[in-house]
Specification:
152 residues; mainly alpha; 0% strand; globular
């Protein structure tokens, strides 16, 4: 953890956070689980519960360009929504902007930041290591892209 505390909510009226969450956060979570369900068909993306089951299924990758396009689009959707959610849940781990919205903004009380840090699970090492690759390969062209599927 870099120890940086993100800025306060960018909305001046805290009552606006639920509407924001209902639209934007809900979208991120649904799209993330939808992408997971398309890549790993044995993992259900439940519309309301957002729960998954453990699976050993492998990503769906096929031979033709059309199939590869669809497979790549699914992977990109998964990576994009992973990036958004990991930033939302772990804003202290990454550089943030003043107009970003984070999980601690949704915690009530005198110390929402501290309450959130104490309540959440730690960022797993694998999840932390995937973020720089996602940043480099999804957001822009860079010489740091890995060839092919590569290791996550």
């Amino acid at each position: 953890m870099n120890g940086r505390k993100p800025p306060g909510p960018p909305m001046t009226n805290p009552a606006d956070l639920p509407a924001y969450s209902n639209e934007h956060l809900d979208y991120e979570v649904r799209m993330f689980y939808g992408a997971v369900s398309k890549l790993l068909p044995a993992v259900p993306a439940r519309a309301k519960g957002y729960s998954t089951t453990t699976t050993t299924a492998q990503p769906v990758i096929q031979g033709s360009w059309t199939s590869k396009f669809h497979s790549n689009a699914r992977i990109e959707a998964l990576v994009l929504h992973y990036r958004n959610l990991v930033m939302f849940l772990f804003p202290d781990e990454y550089a943030v902007y003043g107009d970003d919205v984070f999980a601690p903004h949704f915690v009530a009380g005198s110390d929402p930041w501290g309450t959130w840090i104490r309540a959440r699970s730690p960022l797993l090492p694998d999840l932390k290591s995937w973020k720089p690759r996602a940043d480099k390969e999804l957001a822009h062209l860079t010489i740091q892209r890995q060839s092919g599927a590569g290791a996550a």
